[in-house]
């Protein structure tokens, strides 16, 4: 018996020790879980864990090892707790090539390695060598895997001796590892959230800066100011060493026109000469023509050509990002960001910012060029008009020629403009008869010129009216004799237009550039051609002018009389079309096309004025071969400034006003683009009549549009009236309900007060009667019949129960009084104005009224109310209206909790499982923050989806079934808090967790 007794005792001791060991493990595990939940600091979690685990397991070292994902199974210990006398393993880089071969796959599957003796476990020599380096004799390793990816290892080392690892210890370490993985995942999510928040903040700031830059680009500033501002702002945005704008020349060389750079770097604008990039010249813009960017993080590692690297070294650049600047479809230049101090990894959003700014600069450059071109054309038209006027005013060819060359040279900014006349008696020989030139050039007057090359190469072309433009006499394949003649007159660039008299070549109009080559613009060539044509007119005027004009006038009058009838018929048809439509675009399109065909002109356009008297073309009709002018950038047409021109002179356009009532709306313009035209009075009258009809049509269209707007406004007003009417009805319902509650409370209060007051006397009378009964019973001479009745009535029970009954009646009466008081507090019909009240009374009254909905019933358990009332001052408010708000919010919370209970219960019923206890709670919190009373009403219902939450304060918006809600409760509550009490009402919700409504009302209302 004694051995069995000892054995049983040993078993009990062993079982007790195991239970104690398991208890300590569970305590340590719980502590680790608490640390993970309390903190998001991964280092703190690791350190706490390894310390407690080492103490619990009595190991020599417990450490967390993390793999470096960039290296092949290399890593380091990031946290450890080591006993005294053993070396630290921290900051030691470990690379075990045996690991990948032996253990990686097993660890990724969650396998735990428990080695009692590293020298007897069959480990590879390299693995044993690594463990020996850390003095390890027994080893327990649990993998830390995050989303099926091996993140690291939890290592327990026994250095002093070998050790047999218990199954409970292995299971304990596995649980610890599982919770560490949770902590690692939490830390990763937190890091990702912080990075995303930082990126969003940077994106918002970047978009604001870009928007500011775009606004400055679009502002009416000169192009140099726009360039300067843009480079400064984009350099600050990108934190680059230099941002510069590069403009291409026609030969694809170019120069920097604007820049912004940090202190210490050499400027490029105005210092570097014309830059010739051979690649860009050979490819005529390279990748930039296709609207592509060029990003280089390190110029020495990007495989650039030596000449390209040398060019970038001149710019002091080590990294760059460039984007094209397109002027319409043509490459104008480049915007470049340079990092000079060191290489740089350019982010995609930085490149995107450069692209956006480059696009906006292109728009600004195009606008600037169009404006300059319009101004230049206006100047050309003025000069051309002046030349035409001179020609018309004089028949003296010398005066006409001298005036023309002087004004044409000033207009074209050329070095020399001269008129050359052929001698009809000699073969292509002639002389310059008129000129205007700069002081740096020599005069060519009276120089006899004979060019035998001329007849062979140019005469037939000039006779056809062709203009010859040469940018550089040394770049074209011209005969040597021709170049020699031009060199004689110091000519480097040359433009020549023929002067024709009755179809025969009479002479030449020559424009010379002597100092440098010059690329002649199409507008300059067209201008020169027009001048030459006008000089041809002057030549015709010199002979038979009056006779020819008379014949032309007679013929024109006969023709115009025939056309007059046709025009009147077409005019009537045009006016009829205008009156048939109220669509202004249709009217414009029909009118311009009809008038163009009627007048046989090349273009009819409608120009509309802006309030600042700039404007734009809103419609046009034109012949084939001409480009539209409608929908272009707003501009001021300078040729419209002078309306007193003599209509008898030939012009390219004529126009009449379009008036909307008494207001000048715009112009109806007729163009003859190919050549000037004599505008007849009847043509202008016809235009004027159409302009009047257009004004009437515009006025009618404006009235129609105004009528549509008024109709829309009336519809919106009607909708608002309907909403207001519904709110008023709801308000009247609530007011009626308040009056009903107040009336019921008053009617109940009178009899209850009577009963409550009489209960006091009834209690006193009952006590007196009981005293008399006791005295009577103490008298021994009670009659037998009385004693028999006493026994029959159980008088002792009546004496004991009667006071209890009276006390119960008193409690019930007090309860009814409390309900009546709550009804009066909720309705507050006598407090329609602002009044200081206790908010807690309103909340408690509302809860008391809703008490029947909070109790448990056959469908669900009771709803718990958690009050967290702070000490609040009296709040000046409309009490009845605030009670209505509390009633709406609490009723919605109760509905949400009932929906949650039914949803979860139905889910378990479908699964044929027992439904667990479902907590249903409402929290009411009040406090004072920043001189405001803050009321929070929250529930743990199913929450509100975001697409619903954004509309909950909209009138008539409801998610309840038909007949269960009007959609006005929250809308009226929001109106009461915001409009009536100058407060705020907000809603926050997380689906599946619950909803919270926050009300803020100023104390000093």
In short:
With 1005 residues, the chain is α+β, with helices and mostly antiparallel strands.
Task: Describe this structure as you would to a colleague.
The two termini are about 90 Å apart. The protein has 25 helices and 28 strands. With about 1000 residues, it is an alpha+beta fold. The longest helix has about 100 residues. It is flat, with a radius of gyration of 50 Å. It has a six-stranded antiparallel sheet with strand order 3-2-1-6-5-4. Strands 14-13-12-17-16-15 form a six-stranded antiparallel sheet. It has a five-stranded antiparallel sheet with strand order 8-7-11-10-9. About 50% of the residues lie in helices and about 20% in strands. About 0% of the residues have low confidence.
Strand-pairing-aware structural class? alpha+beta
- Percentage of helical residues? 40-55%
How much is the average pLDDT? 79
Biggest beta sheet attributes: 6 strands, antiparallel
Radius of gyration: 50 Å
Taking the alpha carbons of the first and last residues, their distance comes to: 90 Å
Share of β-strand residues: 15-25%
The low-pLDDT segments are 638-648
| Order of adjacent strands in the largest pleated sheet | 3-2-1-6-5-4
> What form results from the Cα inertia axes?
flat
E-strand count: 28
Q: Specify the number of helices.
A: 25
